[in-house]
Amino acid sequence: MKSFIWPFHDLFLADEFKQGPLVACLLSVLELLDQGHYDRLWSELSERKPLKDFLLQLFAVLRALARQGEHVFPAEWSTMHCVVNRVMLASLDQMTQPLVAYFLDSGWFDSQVY
Description:
The chain is mostly helical. Helix content is 75%, strand content 0%. It has helices at residues 2-13, 20-32, 35-44, 48-72, 78-103. It is elongated, with a radius of gyration of 15 Å.
């Protein structure tokens, strides 16, 4: 999953952000992930440094999508804008588990992640 996020991370941070089909692919993959997938992902990223890097990359991608989302798909595609928001919210909800477990509850508060 980490290697899957990198191209999107670079794409979202680029000046020319008109890649609707790629964003749709990312959203589709995120939408297909269930609790088991996230549990496996968090177990594979069980060390703080790789987990922090992954979370920061995913936060950066979702932040860029939230900021530039209206430019990715035509304004008339209101259903797609709703799908983007729903998938982003579900992803953020799943990311709270390792965020709290590794960067708040363990006594190792990390302001960069928050």
